[in-house]
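To start, an entry.
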Amino acid sequence: MNIIEPLLSHFVPTEIPVPDHWPEGTYRWYRSGDSILVTMDQPHYKAEFLTDSFIADHIIVASKHLSSAEQKAILVHPLGNWGTARHESGNNLQIAPVNPYEMTRMLKCLQAEYAKVPGSEYWVGVEATHHGPTSIDLPIMFVEVGGTETEWNDRDACAIAGRAILQFISQPHELAASTAILGAGGGHYAPAFIRRVDADFFLLGHIIPKFGLEHLTLDLLHQAWNSIKADDKLLLIDKSGTKSAQRTHLLNLAEELNIPYAMTSDYPTPKD
């Protein structure tokens, strides 16, 4: 709610019938041009009922981020479970759709809004694909502020995320990159892939963290690949963030599915 506060002055309350398949609850609807904002008292990370609910280009979910390391962060990430779903958040081994162009544009908006606030101590970036809802029929991304209750109530940090969402829906702009990636390897916060997105080499699709590779099957890789809504895409493997056996497994699967691939070392950045 703190994240959407900057948006509410740009949206007007509206009456929209609650879809019949939604659970009972309190829903409030707002409209601004072609954008619809809805608040709900349902756990949004379990909201599988959002599928078959909208005719839209994408869904953006404003959320809190919990970090056991208490990392102050403002993040965007795609959805899916590479293994067993935790806390009944989505379905096991299911990956939700993602639009890499829009995901990357949201990251750029977060970075631009953060740059306007000197002295802020947050890390702005991306998380690997995780949690639900996963059975969504539209591209979906979460925009989060965390990682403890202190940050959830930091109105300045939440306002950065809120203004970034507002910039995203009101100021479309072109991106230099055109190839989307399915990233594989590395840690949960995906530094190797962020560097290459920041360098305008790629658009950000799904990311399989190193710990998710143990569950990767032919079917799951095929599902993840197809859930990236882009014509030009490749599997990008974090060479330093994977073991040799993991890379061999990935390459065998990619070749069987005829998926193009590359290593992060093929696209060096100044920070490598």
Q: What stands out?
A: The CA atoms of residues 195 and 271 lie 8 Å apart.
